[in-house]
Amino acid sequence: MRWALYVTLSPAWFDPGEVVGGVLTPFWVLYALHDALVKPMPGNRLAPSLAEFWTLSPDQRTYEFKLREGQKFHNGDLFTAEDVKFSFERAKGKLLHEKVKEVVVVDPYRVRFILYEPWPDFMTFYGTFASGAGWIVPKKYVESVGPDGFKKHPIGLGPYKFVSTLPGLELVMEAYEGYWRKSPSVKRLVYKSVPEATTRLAMLRRGEVDVAYLLDAPMAQEVKQDRNLRLVFSGGIATYYLDFLDMWDPKSPWADRRVRLAANFAINRQELSQAETLGASPPTGSIVPQTFEFALPIEPYPYDPAKAKQLLTEAGYPNGFDAGDLHPWPPYFSAGETITNYLQAVGIKTRVRTMERAAFYSALAAKKLKGVCMCLNAVYGNAASRMSEIVPSNGTFAYGGYPDIDALYRVQAQEIDTTRRAQLLQQIQQLIHERVRFAPIFEYIWPSAVGPRVADPALMLIDPYPWSAPLEDVRLNK
After folding, report:
1. Where in the chain is the domain with CATH 3.40.190.10?
2. C-alpha 48: how far from its chain's center?
3. Fewer Cβ within 10 Å of end Cβ, the chain: N or C?
4. 159 and 179 in contact (C-beta within 8 Å)?
């Protein structure tokens, strides 16, 4: 079974330790080659996997995991608690490392995480897509080949084994019959990097791939008319939004709340959803998906260009202003172009600046981008994890912040009373909305196409997770 992916297949995705918070695409590979102590699965967002169960101490500071015994990595090495500790210690993500005081190997099949203080989101960050820290690599093998050697030939505990790769272009995997959950029904999986949507669809029609991820709206319309193909929609985890990167500079027009409000009124969210996703993506007024725990329901801003122009005039920009660059999240460049046109129509002049995906992530995290970002946030979990990278001033992608919101965020992170925590998180979301910190656009649901050989592409079995998973559940027609 073969997939056409829409971005370059990064070797960094082969290593769970390289996963950066908020970046979901590595899980394409993690769900195939690797396994986690706990991970999202069908019907359970915190499903026991390599851990059979876990316990929490009365003081809320110690999590102890009982591991599944007798599991072997693809090279035959036995899985033990030492691998769990090793995998955590090498994983990226400063938040988990700041919160976890010590990882103790109790015995070969029991491992204990001791926190500095109670942190109700430990499992959200350790056991979901919010990080790769809970996904396990073989300590002995990684130490012998090194990080670069591991990326060239990854060894894991997942339902599929690494066979070969053409760097950036293709990954071939073969079913691992010893996988604990079930033996995969499809013998071989092939991921192909195909950045051009027209090429992805053409390959599907020629039978060169079986699933073509992420088509634009006109192509999706074509698929609807093709009896040999199926149009499918998936997503629901990522939110489109504008981040006003220059708003923290008091000399920037974006520092004025009325200007940011004008940008919100300038965007026709429903029309953009129709143009990009055949109307499947519901407009939103929040960066937190409405299905997430602790989400505050906020209505999307209406499309009102007259109101936008009025606000710009009140802010001292009756003829508009030059807002510099608009950086669309790769590869969603067409949406960036459309948003630029909406802003231009009310007098906010921007220039679309496209970048390759890895360079974009690096520049955004290094706080080197200027102007506006048409960003996507796909951090999994709840309202706290969703805001973690962009709302607190110390967030990975935050270019600034508010002291009172930072204080509220720190308090909620230690609040173990669920009702009180919900109040704090909803207060933060309300303040963000009142201060027009962002311009939320829509909750992203997008079209893909499935070929005639596929019985079940395993899309949206894990909700929300937009791609095929669990991969041992994909099926071809017999």
Report:
1. 144-234+447-476
2. 21
3. C
4. yes
Query: What's the CATH number of domain 34-139, 3.50.50.60, 3.90.76.10, 1.10.10.10, 3.30.70.790?
Result: 3.90.76.10
Q: From the CA atom positions of the chain, what is the Rg in Å?
A: 23
434, 438, 439, 441 alpha-carbon torsion, rounded to 10°: -110
Assigned token pair, 82: 């030492």
d(CA 257, CA 253) in angstroms, rounded, equals: 9
- What residues pair up with 64 in beta bridges, in sequence order? 55, 112
Does 289 sit behind a cis peptide bond, omega within 30 degrees of 0 on the bond before it? no
Helix axis angle for 139-152 and 81-90, nearest 10°, is 50
Residue 447, class by beta-carbon neighbours within 10 Å (0-12 exposed, 13-18 middle, 19+ buried)?
buried
Identify whether the C-beta of residue 223 lies closer than 8 Å to the C-beta of residue 427. no
Work out the number of other CB atoms within 10 angstroms of the CB of residue 97: 12
User: What residues contact 266, with CB distance under 8 A and at least 6 apart?
Assistant: 303, 305, 308, 342, 343, 345, 346, 348
Domain with CATH 3.10.105.10 in the chain: 236-445
| Neighbour-count burial of 38, counting CB atoms closer than 10 A to its CB (0-12 exposed, 13-18 middle, 19+ buried) | buried
Q: First-to-last CA distance in the chain?
A: 13
Classify each residue of 448-474 as buried b or exposed e, where b means 16 or more C-beta atoms within 10 Å of its C-beta: bbbbeebeebbbbbbebbbbbbbbbbb
Report the C-alpha gap between 48 and 68 in whole angstroms. Answer: 10
Delimiting residues of CATH 3.90.76.10 domain(s) in the chain: 34-139
Give the span between the Cα atoms of 396 and 415, in whole angstroms.
Answer: 23
What is the third-level CATH fold of 236-445? Dipeptide-binding Protein; domain 3 (3.10.105)
Assign 35 to helix, strand or coil: coil
Peptide bond into 464 cis (omega under 30): yes
- The CATH architecture to which 144-234+447-476 belongs is 3-Layer(aba) Sandwich (3.40)
- Per-residue pLDDT of 428-472, as tens digits, reads 999 999 999 999 999 999 999 999 999 999 999 998 899 999 999
Inter-residue contact 407 to 401 (CB < 8 Å): no
pLDDT digits (tens, 9 = 90+) for 191-221: 999 999 999 999 999 999 999 999 999 999 9
Report d(CA 161, CA 29) in Å as an integer: 11
| Mean pLDDT, rounded, of the chain | 96
Residue 358 confidence (pLDDT):
86
Secondary structure class of 346 (helix, strand, coil): helix
CA dist 309 and 316 (Å) reads: 11
Give the Cα separation of 62 and 76 in Å (integer): 31
